[in-house]
Design brief:
Chain lengths: ~325, ~500
């Protein structure tokens, strides 16, 4: 188990290295010269452009830029935002709790709705409850986030006045307000997650319920509740956990549209603004942080498999 | 338990209601860039600067230049400007705002690496301290536009001690002499400023705190205002004006902007200028005559904007009154195309920055132009990419807006002069260059207006170097509880005189 863990960690470093270079190289392909953006209305003045390029090392070869960035990174320095001159590390640390809170809330909403709904609809397959749950799930998957978001704002904030329409209050500043500002975006994101989880839980449960061990358990007279939860669901959870960690990773990468609609200052908004302003250090920082999160989550998924299915521990 | 929750909710409600009276919350449409007057570039940043950094001069609603940190000015000769300063003014760090600070700030604008002010005041050859309350600014040559530059960021005076200590990071914590001092900034979320007790005009400032909240979506920005989560929003869409008017708890303020929307034409920038549109003024004339600005404005902007043919809006004293858009004339447009000997339909590409209203405007123009024999191909592009394409000459026509300057020089020279840094179409006419240079040093308003009239006649009507379409409006909506807002054409929100009931 421990050697396995170390081996997995050993795979992570090269992955991150290749990925970071990929990002660096891809950015060069983006149209739109950062110096032009930064020069703003002085864009026609070659002297200004040359000054900006020199300051940001944009006049150096790509490999030199990458080497410099990597060297600084190894010293824990992500560089600074070209647009607002704030250190990127500081920006990431400020956005991480926001996105983490939103992701966690959305995920909880997604799991609490999605998994039981999937189980229910598998157990009551092809009956009205199944159709109903499937219908709602389809609705949840196909509903565009921004539309649902704006509709919720218009209903709960403008018409009813129950919730603040947008913005974000940190959890430690005012927990009540914090929940009030994040519940709508978390719900918008959570319904999407719930629908995906429901569909997969249902499929996995249907597969599990047809297995021999389920039939055997039933033949032995085990209570149906125990059959479903201990025998079928536990086996069905493996693909759901995989999917769940991917979904959670997606949420952590920042929900661009939802953050934009609800003015939540998280990763999604950060990276979108950075791309539009060609603020390369911020883009690199966010992508690298997101990649780290994904890698950590896939590691977590592997550990979870072993907890759910002890047979994997010997493999 | 339920009672406890109810009590908690009531408490929370009371707490936030109390917060409302303390705090003016203003919704901005994008996150400002760095808050350093020397390095800043964005329009939304100027809105925040209006609270933090006072300027030597300001403008009023009639675009007249009025003193702010200065008390007055005289031109000793056309190259020497003498400015007297307001006594007893303090920076947020308690340092005195004096002639030395003005000299420091102007020199910082001129020398700091990456300064965006250098171009605005590069005529300055020396700044001299006469006494603690008098500065002399020497210019290389007379400049009619110079004083107006000191009404914007180039005229902001920073605390030399703070600026020296912070260097290029001054913008993380700007220290100026405005009515509010910088408190905190959460990137992409908010900027908070608090009233500065030692402000020189403290009586005009009543609201203890202003929070600028960044909300990019205009529907959501308005929803925040409607639900009472904001007291004020900038840049309301013309489509939403009716909804604001219907709401009796909201007020609307509409004023003319300083800038314009125009179409840049590639006349001499690389291979893509080698088209009938780029090479023949008759084709460009036909193009312009096929457009009906009034209808365009009605369809896309509910008729709220001002159709125009020149870069200077009607509110400006240097607007040339007789220079109006020609009425749409399809017969003449078709005749001009025949005369130019081009095969119709003539394909013309228009690069359009990706925003819903500009896309719609381009589609309306496409329909209008088709009737005259043009086939307009719309090339929608994300803004940063379109800018680079324009500089490189990778465009035929480019639908671009300019935020505008108080002095007409800032709306014309850089776009029309053959050496103008933003002349992306590379239009060049020696006579226009000569007149633009002459307008720069002419200080008599009537004579200067005549010169601009001559420039428009050549560069716009004869050479058709660009097509000016409309002047937009600054549309600000605010809660009825907020009073005392005065709309100035630069579209900024000045906190002086604002009251929140």
């Amino acid at each position: 188990m421990i050697t396995w863990f170390i081996r997995r960690l050993g795979q992570i470093l090269p992955t991150l290295l290749i990925l970071s270079f990929g990002i660096f190289a891809l950015q060069q392909l983006m149209p739109g010269d950062p110096a032009l953006i930064l020069a703003g209305e002085d864009r026609g003045d070659p002297r200004v452009l040359a000054e900006i390029r020199a300051e940001l090392m944009l006049d150096r070869p790509l490999l030199a830029q990458y080497g410099h960035w990597l060297w600084r990174l190894l010293h824990g320095d992500f560089g600074f935002s070209w647009r607002i001159r704030v250190p990127v590390g500081e920006l990431l640390l400020a956005k991480l709790p926001v996105t983490a809170q939103l992701a966690a809330m959305s995920f909880v909403i997604g799991v609490v709705i999605g998994v039981p709904a999937g189980v229910l609809s598998a157990v009551w397959k092809d009956r009205p409850l199944d159709w109903l749950v499937n219908g709602i799930a389809l609705f949840g998957i196909s509903m565009p986030n921004f539309w649902l978001g704006i509709m919720m704002i218009l209903l709960f904030s403008v018409q009813l006045g129950w919730l603040p329409p947008s913005g974000y209050v940190p959890l430690w500043e005012d927990p009540w307000q914090s929940l009030a500002t994040t519940i709508m975006p978390a719900f918008v994101l959570g319904t999407g997650v719930a629908s995906v989880l429901m569909r997969h839980t249902r499929a996995a449960m249907l597969g599990a319920l047809e297995q021999d061990y389920v039939r055997t358990a039933r033949a032995k007279g085990v209570a149906e509740r125990v059959v479903i939860f201990r025998h079928a669901l536990r086996n069905a959870l493996i693909p759901v956990v995989t999917l769940g960690t991917i979904e959670f990773g997606r949420l952590m990468a920042g929900a661009v549209l939802t953050e934009q609609i609800f003015s939540i200052p998280g990763f999604g908004k950060l990276v979108v603004d950075a791309v539009f302003n060609r603020d390369y250090p911020v883009v690199q920082g966010v992508v690298l942080a997101t990649a780290l999160i994904f890698v950590a989550l896939s590691l977590l998924a592997d550990v979870l498999y072993m907890l759910i299915n002890p047979r994997l521990r010997t493999a | 338990m339920r009672r406890l929750i109810l009590a908690a909710m009531l408490l929370a409600g009371a707490a936030s209601a109390q917060g409302v009276t303390q705090n003016l919350r203003i919704g901005l449409r994008e996150d400002p860039d760095i808050m350093d007057p020397t390095l800043a570039r964005t329009f939304v940043g100027r809105i925040v600067f209006a609270a933090i950094c006072d300027k030597l001069f300001d403008i009023n609603e009639r675009l007249e230049i009025v003193p702010q940190l200065a008390t007055g000015h005289v031109w000793d000769d056309p190259r020497t400007l003498r400015i007297t300063l307001r006594p007893g003014v303090k920076f947020h760090d308690g340092e005195p705002m004096d002639a030395e600070a003005v000299r420091y700030s102007l020199n910082r604008h001129l020398t700091l690496q990456g300064s965006f002010r250098r171009g605005e005041i590069n005529g300055v050859t020396a700044v001299e301290v006469v006494d603690p309350l008098t500065v002399l600014i020497r210019l290389a040559e007379p400049s009619a536009a110079f004083l107006s530059q000191l009404t914007d960021r180039a005229g902001m005076v920073v605390s030399p001690r703070a600026a020296e200590a912070a260097g290029r990071n001054f913008g993380l914590r700007p220290i100026c002499a405005g009515p509010y001092r910088f408190t905190e900034r959460v990137a992409q979320d908010r900027i908070v400023v608090d009233r500065f007790a030692d402000y020189w005009n403290a009586a005009a400032v009543t609201i203890p705190r202003i929070t600028y909240q960044i909300i990019t979506d205009s529907t959501v920005r308005l929803a925040n205002l409607q639900s009472g989560a904001l007291e004020m929003v900038q840049s309301v869409d013309p489509d939403d004006v009716a909804a604001v008017r219907r709401n009796n708890r909201l007020r609307l303020s509409i004023s003319d902007e300083l800038g314009y929307q125009s179409l840049t034409i590639n006349i001499g920038n690389g291979a893509r200028a080698q088209t009938p549109m780029g090479q023949d003024a008759r084709v460009r004339a036909a193009f312009e005559l096929a457009l009906d600005r009034q209808v365009l404005n009605q369809v896309v902007y509910e008729g709220m904007f001002n159709p125009t043919a020149q870069p200077v809006p009607p509110t400006n004293p240097l607007h040339v009154p007789g220079f109006l858009p020609e009425p749409r004339n399809l017969d003449r447009a078709r005749a001009l195309l025949r005369e130019a000997g081009v095969r119709t339909p003539l394909a013309v590409e228009m690069t359009v920055p990706n925003s819903p209203d500009l896309r719609q405007a381009a589609e309306v123009m496409q329909a209008m132009l088709r009737e005259a024999g043009f086939e307009l191909r719309i090339n929608t592009m994300e803004f940063a990419s379109s800018l680079q394409a324009a500089v490189r000459g990778d465009f035929e026509t480019y639908l671009l807006a300019w935020s505008g300057r108080v002095d007409p020089d800032g709306n014309s020279y850089t776009f029309m002069h053959s050496r103008g840094p933003q002349n992306d179409g590379r239009y060049s006419n020696p006579e226009v260059d000569r007149l633009l240079d002459a307008a720069r040093i002419e200080t008599d308003t009537a004579r200067r207006r005549d010169i601009y009239g001559q420039i428009w006649a050549i560069a716009i009507r004869q050479d058709r170097s660009r097509i000016y379409l409309w002047h937009r409006k600054n549309i600000v909506a605010h809660s009825a509880r907020l009073t005392g807002f005065v709309a100035i054409p630069d579209g900024l929100i000045r906190p002086q005189g604002l009251r929140l009931q």
